[in-house]
Design goal:
The radius of gyration is 55 Å and the shape is elongated. The chain starts with a helix and ends with a helix. The chain has 164 residues and is mostly helical. The chain contains 3 helices and no strands.
Length: 164
């Protein structure tokens, strides 16, 4: 029995050694598999990061172009605003000068003369309209006469007036 117990002990030791080696081999294999998986993940991540980097670069380029367009539009708007501002300043100065001249003219009585001249112009306009209306009353208009390319309107009008 002692022999059997010794054999069992040896077998147990051998199994423990084999188990230990098996464990080490498994761990080594797992480590190798794990390393391979880690390398694959690294590779996939690098590729994905590169794609993301390219996408980001493309978007940044697009944004840079848009920013440049906005800058150009801003410059143009600034030029327009400066032009309008300068024109406004000039017109404001002209207006002030005109006000000063008008005040001087009012002091000199020119304003009354201008008002009287306006009244005279209105009166002349009324008289001119009256003359035009009287003149039109003396005119003769002829409608419905057949026309010819070779006719002389002046001669026809004279002939009609002689008969009337």
């Amino acid at each position: 029995m002692n022999d059997f117990a010794n054999k069992m002990e040896e077998l147990k030791s051998a199994i423990e050694v084999d188990m230990k080696e098996l464990k080490e081999n498994m761990m080594s294999g797992i480590c190798k598999e794990n390393e391979k998986m880690r390398e694959n993940v690294k590779k996939d991540m690098r590729e994905e990061m590169e794609k993301m980097r390219e996408d980001v670069l493309e978007k940044v380029k697009s944004l840079c172009m848009e920013v440049e367009e906005v800058k150009n539009e801003m410059k143009e708007q600034k030029r327009c605003v400066e032009f309008v501002s300068e024109t406004y300043d000039e017109l404001k100065k002209e207006n002030e000068n005109m006000k000063e001249k008008l005040n001087i003219l009012e002091k000199n009585g020119v304003k009354k003369e201008v008002i009287e001249m306006k009244k005279d112009v209105k009166l002349i306009d009324v008289k001119m309209n009256d003359i035009v209306n009287r003149q039109q009353g003396d005119n003769l208009e002829l409608y419905g006469l057949p026309c010819n390319n070779k006719e002389n309107c002046k001669e026809i009008a004279l002939a009609i007036t002689k008969k009337i």
